């Protein structure tokens, strides 16, 4: 992060995206991707395996949109089956100990919580996946709530974050994420937006409009120290 620390409004809560923000998703998803398309071939639903980078580049999207990008020529039955297999192989991988949090993620979460900040996740992922990442990586107790599009059936992250804020009566929060959907969710809900510039899944222009950029989650701490009361 640059030496000049942006002065943000002190938050009641910090809302985190999961994939590409807290969880280094490719450490799990590369193997999952191979398993999905091997099974689809075995079941006669789809042919060759698309590049895994295509799937990684879609992280942050809703699932229906992901499969339209990853295999646009697939049948609806193949995309539905891919949804089922994604969750199955993700959970199997997590239970086997695959995947890891970004360096400094747990430390940053613990220090934020110790300073009285409420912590949340807002993800476009599936409910069980989001909750199992948090549980199996040991960070679930640090959060007030784990919100997912899969659980709340929201059509955008804007709506998911709005629901979170309403249910918990939060006046001001920070939105922390690596994709344009996170910037949009923060902006449209009147939040300060911190863009995670360390993930490789998106493109730099996705974070245009963020109030601050960080290279590690531990950089949230000096931002909090410099923040001003509303």
Automatic annotation (TrEMBL):
Keywords: Hydrolase
Record-level GO BP terms: DNA repair
Keyword flag Metal-binding: no
InterPro entries reported for this sequence: HAD-like_hydrolase_sf, HAD-like_sf, HAD_sf, PGP-like_dom2
Recorded GO MF terms: phosphoglycolate phosphatase activity
This protein's GO CC annotations: cytosol
Protein name as it appears in the record: HAD family hydrolase
Organism of provenance: Paenibacillus protaetiae
């Amino acid at each position: 992060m640059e030496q000049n620390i942006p002065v943000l409004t002190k938050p009641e809560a910090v809302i985190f995206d999961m994939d590409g923000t807290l969880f280094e998703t490719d450490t799990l998803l590369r193997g999952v991707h191979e398993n999905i398309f091997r099974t689809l071939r075995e079941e006669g639903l789809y042919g060759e395996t698309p590049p895994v980078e295509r799937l990684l580049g879609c992280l942050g999207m809703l699932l229906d949109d992901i499969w339209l990008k990853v295999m646009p020529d697939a049948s609806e039955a193949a995309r539905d089956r891919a949804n089922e297999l994604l969750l199955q192989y993700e959970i199997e991988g997590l239970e086997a100990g695959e995947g890891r949090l970004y360096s400094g993620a747990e430390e940053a979460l613990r220090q934020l919580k110790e300073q009285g900040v409420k912590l949340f996740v807002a993800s476009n992922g599936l409910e069980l996946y989001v909750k199992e990442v948090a549980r199996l990586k040991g960070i679930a107790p640090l959060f007030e709530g784990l919100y997912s599009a899969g659980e709340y059936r929201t059509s955008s992250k804007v709506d998911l974050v709005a629901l979170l804020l309403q249910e918990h009566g939060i006046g001001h929060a920070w939105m922390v994420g690596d994709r344009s959907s996170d910037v949009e969710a923060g902006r449209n809900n009147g939040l300060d937006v911190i863009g995670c510039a360390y993930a490789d899944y998106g493109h730099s222009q996705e974070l245009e409009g963020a109030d601050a950029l960080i290279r590690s989650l531990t950089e949230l701490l000096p931002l909090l120290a410099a923040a001003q009361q509303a």
